[in-house]
Design a protein that fits this description.
The complex is a heterodimer of chains A (94) and B (396). With 94 residues, chain A is an alpha+beta fold. Chain A is 23% helix and 46% strand. In chain A, strands 1-2-3-5-4 form a 5-stranded mixed β-barrel. Classes of the chains: A alpha+beta (94), B mainly alpha (396).
Chain lengths: 94, 396
């Protein structure tokens, strides 16, 4: 088989794999905490330069402060016309 | 005053570094810079001078790795072939001088273009913005139509690049453009040159002898095309150069290099004016400025002065670096340099974009190599940016 055909097949396969990965992997977001509110076993986080609220239900072993940079994964939601992300996973980078 | 001068030269040094090292783009520096907390405390003028000096110097220097190492960025991708041809004939330094001549023309043309741009573009901009997707589609069709080799292969590469771009930009990776563009234009070229076992002859360092008439066509093309392309997202210097060369008629190798140099510098310079007029950032440098401040007329004057001063420094600097490389490149084993750069690029991308970035780089490299084997113009690989941009701007 000619080299150009092999390269074309490999490129196409690679692109398909990348498309598959974009459909299956959960995006990770990054942001800096602007404010934190705690209430009824949940934490509401507001980020700098973002109107979306982050909702965190599992609050154990977390020491979050204003100004901390966080990486998080979660699902988008809307509650009373307020855009929210319900956090599944969060990492504090400080 | 001392702070301003220091900042200016720091910008020149950083632009030289980003221009010379393949894979390190000014976008990377500006994005890293924006994430630094100390940015808030620095005066706006200082930041403007640094970013502008770095960006303009970069546009002068970045043809050096493209011509001598075959390792371009997205703006110099098309310069590889004519530049490499001259390098093989011992005229690498001449190729750099031609792009430098183009950049110099761009700086002089700015005096003519900016007043016209400021007075006319705001009137037609709302119309252009509404029609953006259709203009970009028309440009894509124009690029395919102007392809001299197989049009089918060109369309195939363009569409595959589009899918690759969509996948990469939607993937959960840091700096997705870095592996994408490095693979499409950088690593694929390097692997191809390793495979071709390129031997670099001794390079001549002669005076640039070019007929003044030969400068006219690329100058006209630059003046006509750069202002329009400078506010179309997804269009880089390479696409602008193709459109320009189609408008003015056939350009020879030397004229094409002049055109690439001039468009590369002009698009960068005009991007600051575009930011001032429409608050739209078309380049990484303009984006960085947009994140720092709302650009005023005073800021614009600072930027334009910095552009002029940077060019005055960047011209002899580029000549000096190119001359030194020309003197020594034949002594250094080219394959070893290429392999070193390849390893360096892989390391940089793995560091910044992780394993998924490395996967993107691999696929982009394969597609870049496919385009080379197809003998298709590499600008079709810019479908990776153009197609996602067209989709974004479609009104439905």
């Amino acid at each position: 088989m000619k080299l150009e055909k092999i390269l074309l097949i490999l490129s196409t396969l690679g692109i398909l794999i990348l498309i598959f990965l974009t459909q299956t992997t959960t995006p990770t977001y990054k942001g800096t905490i602007n404010s934190i509110q705690s209430s009824n076993n949940k934490i509401i986080i507001h980020l700098e330069n973002s109107s979306t609220e982050l909702i965190l239900f599992n609050t154990q072993h977390l020491n979050l402060n204003k100004g901390d940079t966080i990486n998080f994964q979660g699902r988008e939601d809307t509650y009373k016309n307020q855009s929210q992300i319900i956090i599944d996973k969060i990492i504090n980078q400080k | 005053m001392l702070t301003i001068i220091t900042t200016f030269f720091l910008g020149i040094i950083t632009g030289t570094f980003t221009g010379l090292i393949p894979g390190i783009h000014i976008n990377l520096v500006t994005l890293s810079m924006l994430s630094l907390p100390l940015i808030i405390n620095l005066p706006i003028t200082i930041l403007l001078i640094f970013i502008t000096a770095m960006a303009i110097t970069h546009t002068f220097i970045d043809f050096i790795p493209s011509i001598f190492l075959g390792a371009p960025d997205e703006d110099t991708g098309l310069g590889v072939l004519p530049g490499h041809e001259l390098l093989i004939h011992g005229e690498g330094h001449r190729a750099v001088k031609l792009t430098l001549l183009g950049s110099t023309i761009a700086i002089i043309s700015l005096a003519l273009i900016i007043p016209i741009f400021i007075t006319t573009i705001p009137t037609i901009y709302p119309f252009l913005q509404r029609m953006m997707a259709f203009f970009l589609i028309w440009i894509a069709i124009f690029l395919v139509y102007s392809e001299k080799e197989s049009k089918t292969k060109a369309v195939l590469i363009f569409i595959l690049a589009g899918f690759l771009g969509l996948a990469s930009l939607n993937m959960n990776i840091e700096q997705p453009l870095l592996p994408l563009l490095t693979g499409l234009f950088g690593t694929s070229t390097i692997i191809h040159s390793i495979k071709s076992k390129t031997i670099i002859p001794k390079q001549g360092i002669n005076k640039l002898d070019i007929d003044k008439k030969e400068i006219i066509k690329p100058t006209i093309a630059t003046v006509l095309v750069s202002p329009i392309c400078s506010f179309f997202p997804g269009l880089g210097s390479s696409q602008a150069a193709i459109i320009g060369s189609e408008i003015t008629g056939k350009l020879n190798r030397e004229q094409f290099l002049i055109l690439l140099g001039s468009i590369n510098t002009l698009i960068m310079s005009i991007s600051f004016v575009t930011l001032f007029l429409f608050q739209k950032s078309r380049t990484g440098a303009a984006f960085a400025i947009s994140q720092i401040t709302q650009i005023t007329i005073a800021n614009l004057w600072t930027i334009l002065t910095t552009i002029l001063l940077s060019a005055i420094i960047a011209i002899p600097l580029t000549l000096l670096i190119s001359k030194q490389i020309s003197k020594h490149i034949h002594k250094i084993p080219y394959t070893k340099i290429s392999i070193t750069i390849l390893i360096f690029l892989i390391a940089i991308i793995t560091y910044f974009s992780g394993i998924l970035g490395l996967l993107t780089l691999t696929v982009a490299t394969l597609l870049g190599l496919t385009a080379i084997e197809f003998h298709t113009r590499r600008s079709f690989l810019m479908g990776a940016i153009l197609i996602p941009t067209i989709i974004f701007y479609l009104p439905f």
